[in-house]
Amino acid sequence: MAGRHRLLLENAQQLVLVCGRGEEYLRREAAASPAVLREASLVVGLDGCIKAVGQADVIRNQFSGATFERIIDCSGKCVLPGLVDAHTHPVWAGDRVHEFAMKLAGASYMEIHQAGGGIHFTVEHTRKATEEELFNTFKDRLERMRRAGSTLVECKSGYGLNLETELKMLRVIERAKQSMDIGISSTYCGAHSVPKGKTATEATDDIINNHLPKLKELRLSGEIHVNNIDVFCEKGVFDLESTRRILQAGKEIGLQINFHGDELHPMKSAELGAELGARAISHLEEVSDEGITAMARAKCAAVLLPTTAYMLRLKQPQARKMLEEGVIVALGSDFNPNAYCFSMPMVMHLACVNMKMSMNEALAAATINAAYALGKSDTHGSIETGKQGDLVIINSSRWEHLIYQFGGHEALIDYVIVKGKVVYQNERCGTMSSY
Which residues does UniProt call coiled coil (predicted)? Predict the structure, then answer.
């Protein structure tokens, strides 16, 4: 096939497709056996999409007359889909390292929250920060995520709790969408906490009557494009009825429902999400058996966050029960001032060790299923013809090293590629020739 193309990756020891037949998600047995090709190559076109995947000799013959902007010899290496981080809070000012010491001394999440720390501490600092300050720190965080293999990241607002600051955060996210080589799914999370001086009912009314109409207006004018709506459905924060009202109002203006539920207390969030047609629910440490069944039936993804359960010393989510019952299980880092982790390889490792997932299940959860949780599994999450050319190349002959080497991704990852363009190259691989 003659013509000019953006990228040829050739002779990979393992080419981890994850999916081979256009699946939207993988669950049960399918999640335990992702598709892998050996001695394989792939081509990404000038439009950033994958044009061909197959055995190295077949691709070589098929593209014998073609030219490429870049060719990478992947002999002895593995190529995987770019990782998808399905839950992050990456736009904020003011870290909470002092609270980590409080937690180690025995303070609970809600005790810190009620003492004016937690979300409210970050809200105070984020309200004071300029848009430029927020963008610069956000950009640095996204670059660190990308170096760890993430090529699509869900990014929430939620440290404003007033319309002005929530919009400031969403503008920062929109700016990164337009200017950075990384996929972003943006989430309005104005119901992350009840603002000081308001009741939950007053905050709910403000969101429905003021925040959401403004978001709709800005989307129609093309200024801000928000993908998802999120609520922290939790005892002492937003109860089930307030959560229902906000999520329903968000759905009515075209936002996907993707919210925090059943984290610290059993709230019947999973049942509510299934009823409302939620795309995904995160946390679920305290989910009920009925909630698990409802999510499986509704094809509502469970975004599990092993870093959060680990750092807050919470009960681990019931990943095995969810997998066995047919829930679509995804993973996220929950990067935020309270759970400071940029690395999806470390998240996958913790999912395997603490939540008893297999490495195959963790990979599916951090690729195709995480993409499904964001409504993007038609374009992301696997290496298939027609999908976006988002890829990770690791310096190992077995892909499992990406999970097995806990904290080793900085030495292991050779290249991260978005739309066929090398956006990160390990220094041992020479200088960047594609910039």
Answer: none
Task: Give the range of the structural domain holding residue 335, as residue numbers without chain letter.
Answer: 83-374
0.90 surpassed by pTM? yes
Tally of domains within the chain: 2
Q: Does the CA dihedral 156-158-159-163 come out positive or negative?
A: positive
Q: Tens digits of per-residue pLDDT, 341-393?
A: 999 999 999 999 999 999 999 999 999 999 999 999 999 999 999 999 999 99
Q: Are residues 99 and 169 in the same domain?
A: yes
Which of 337, 356, 374 is a domain's end point? 374
- If asked whether residues 172 and 63 sit together in one domain, one would say no
DSSP string computed for 94-163: S--HHHHHHHHTT--HHHHHHTT-THHHHHHHHHHS-HHHHHHHHHHHHHHHHHTTEEEEEEE--S--SH
Residue 142's domain is classified under what CATH number?
3.20.20.140
Residue recorded with tokens 């691709």: 59
Which residue is listed with tokens 């807050």? 312
Using a 10 angstrom Cβ sphere, with 0-12 exposed, 13-18 middle and 19 or more buried, the burial of residue 312 is middle
Six-digit token string for 433: 């020739």
pLDDT tens digits, 266-296: 999 999 999 999 999 999 999 999 999 999 9
Q: Quick one: 274 and 320 in the same domain?
A: yes
